[in-house]
Amino acid sequence: MEHFDSIIIGSGVGGLATAICLARAGQKVLVLEQHYVPGGWSHSFTLGGQRFSPGVHYVGLLDEGQSTNELYKGLGIANDMVFFRMNRDGYEHCLINGETIHIPIGLDRFKNSLFKRFPAEEKNIIKYLTLVENVNRELQLMPKLKGWWQKITVPFRTKNFGKFALFPLKKVIDWHIKDPLLKAVLNVQCGDHGLAPQRACFPVHCSVMYHYFDGGFYPMGGGSGIIKAMTNGLKKNGGEVRVKQSVRRILVENNTAIGVELADGQKITANNVVSNADPSATYLKMVGKEYLSKKLIKRLAATKYSITTLILFLTLDMDVTQANIDSGNVWMMKDENLDGHFEELMNHNSEDGEEFPALFLSCTTLKDPSSYNGRYHNFECVTYANYDNLKSFNDQEDYHSDAYKIYKEKIISKFMNNIEKIIPGAKNHIVQVELGTPKTNEFYINSTKGNIYGTEKTLKQVGPFAYKNKTEIKNLFLCGASTLSHGVGGATHSGVAAAASILGCASDDLMIKDPEQQLRIYDAEDEKNWPGWVNVKRSDRKRRFKESVIEG
After folding, report:
1. How many whole angstroms separate alpha carbon 442 and alpha carbon 538?
2. Do the beta carbons of residue 37 and residue 303 sit within 8 Å?
3. Nearest to 526, CA basis, from 79, 84, 80, 83
4. Most buried residue, 160, 297, 317, 329, by most Cβ within 10 Å?
5. Are 67 and 136 in contact (CB under 8 A)?
6. First and final CA of the chain: distance in angstroms?
């Protein structure tokens, strides 16, 4: 029987970050992944020779000295990564009721662009965005407060957080902003935490907005670019990743995790077990209720998971830049009523109607110029869905029925009706199209009800109320989107925190300072900014594509 110092279940960025930190500390580490490729929500796959990344659409705070940049340097993987800065004039494009409003890089530029469109709201814009900044700053400050004096002065140091944290986003923004369209623009990134304004936790929304104030960045290679750097970093430190390894159960003796049993019956022991799966998958499927306290069972029953998605993977044979598509994301909404859109998506069957009330569209071949073959452009288009509305498929062991195919065809048709309004003529230039459903998420990611952000990010389930890295079972730990935070950066930080919990140190202690580590960032929209090897890579891709067309 094999034995490791630590076994990590799941190779998402949280699990891989844990593994890297533990391996660098000298541990013998094994990462087990049920999918045929590592990465969890950050994995990439190919379809007809084109690459798609279902979970990574952009990353923030990557400039020199910012937190995600420092995180990748501290993990020793920055040199193996390349990012492209998305459109400086609009890394987000809001298409609301036929009007387009761009969100540019930089808070001052963002404010000025809003002043021009909403001159009557100038003072309100300043006040509201200053509040967003202050709440986020206080959020970052709270974990750092130590000692009696600092703790006793918390109410004075975090007055903005204390005043507004208990209210949903809708209430706070209604107190500051009057114009419905402006509210929609400021709330558009609700899509990045999955809650309607009337239910969204205001501090979480502040954190998301702040994360992207200085722009969005996309990894070369899509999500797999991040995963490749992390798996290479792990292997350099003696760690191991095994794919197609489904964990049937976590072995527990005397309230202590001692290893895992795989689906084929193989048992592997370890001093520590870390689960990158969500709490329900970890505790209910892999541990078992018989090993859990009544308090934890009650909490699991009350836990609500984040929203699930429908994801369209599309390749078009046309010059989409003629339709003003660029490296910026597109958020399309039929009107300013975001709460109404969420309600419609949750309470109606997904296949009903001709169009979706809201969706997200992203062109990966423009965000990652090195992936463009000179002719085809790839898109990922996302909207929300209610898992419970797929009841006819949820009860089937094999849901790939004729009814499921018909369901997918209806959803694809709805997506294309929306996309046709953004990119006229798109329907006539489809090379390939495929749909990922909540069942797809559940199958490949093993997320409860196909959730995409772990636990739902309401006030009762974030911050001090989130699941902790350390569990009630000795030597069993959690990481991932249901613990510290969600998103690529948040989940990666959660992995470092889990490793720190195992090693009995602070997360900062695991961030190794290395001046040789430097993240490479280039502007997606500025070819003159690209180094020669990017152009070579792009040219090679074009050449190979032309050769395949001739051979075909």
Report:
1. 35
2. no
3. 84
4. 329
5. no
6. 50
Helix, strand, or coil (residue 319): coil
Find out whether 363 and 320 touch, Cβ atoms under 8 Å: yes
Tell me: pLDDT of 392 over 90: no
Instruction: Give the pairing type, strands 358-363 and 520-523.
Output: unpaired
Nearest to 95 by CA among 489, 532, 422: 422
Each residue of 7-46: b (16+ CB within 10 Å) or e?
A: bbbbbbbbbbbbbbbbbbbebbbbbbbbbeebbbbbbbbe
Q: Are strands 267-275 and 329-333 parallel, antiparallel or unpaired?
A: unpaired
- The residue behind tokens 């991932």 is 480
Phi, psi of 34 (to 5 degrees): -75, -30
Say yes or no to pLDDT of 518 above 80: yes
Confidence of residue 545 (pLDDT cuts 50, 70, 90): confident
Give the pLDDT confidence of 427-454 residue by residue, as tens digits.
999 999 999 999 999 889 999 999 999 9
pLDDT greater than 70 at residue 397: no
DSSP three-state, residue 18: helix
Strand order in the sheet with 430-436: 99-103, 92-96, 329-333, 358-363, 376-385, 308-317, 430-436
Q: What number of helices (H) and strands (E) belong to the chain?
A: 20, 19
pLDDT score of 129: 97
Q: How confident is the model at residue 143 (pLDDT cuts 50, 70, 90)?
A: low
Contact 486, 42 (CB under 8 A): no
Integer Rg of the chain from CA: 23
Map out the domains of the chain with their CATH numbers: 3-43+52-56+222-304+455-510 (3.50.50.60), 86-105+307-452+525-552 (3.90.660), 106-213 (no CATH)
